[in-house]
Design a protein that fits this description.
The protein is mainly beta. It has no helices and 11 strands.
Length: about 120
């Protein structure tokens, strides 16, 4: 089964950019629908963006036009390009892989946006 590790988080000023990466190990990566979720302190975990095995994408309204999700099946990687970051984007960001009833989640990477 696939295992996931996120990287690329950090501290950035408002208006800045970060690129998150999610490295997957295991087989059949290309059949998984992949996603990025986030969880801020005291808040529920929420979907940020998703990309299907066929390459279709879906974004939460609060990141449309600012964030872009992509995947590289040959490298078993998923990316989240985050531009025009806002302090409210501060959260732990998690990568997920889902197929059928199976979902895997990485340990997360912290993103902090200062005002």
């Amino acid at each position: 089964q696939v295992q996931l590790v996120e990287s690329g988080g950090g501290l950035v000023q408002a208006g800045g950019s970060l690129r998150l990466s999610c490295a997957a190990s295991g087989t059949f990566f290309s059949i998984y629908d992949m996603g990025w979720y986030r969880q801020a302190p005291g808040k529920q975990r929420e979907l940020v963006a998703a990309i299907t095995s066929a390459g279709g994408t879906n974004y939460a309204d609060f990141v449309k036009g600012r964030f872009t999700i992509s995947r590289d099946n040959a490298k078993k990687m998923v990316y989240l390009q985050m531009n025009s970051l806002k302090p409210e984007d501060t959260a732990v960001y998690y990568c997920t892989a889902e197929v059928g009833s199976v979902r895997r989640t990485g340990p997360g990477t912290q993103v902090t946006v200062s005002s």
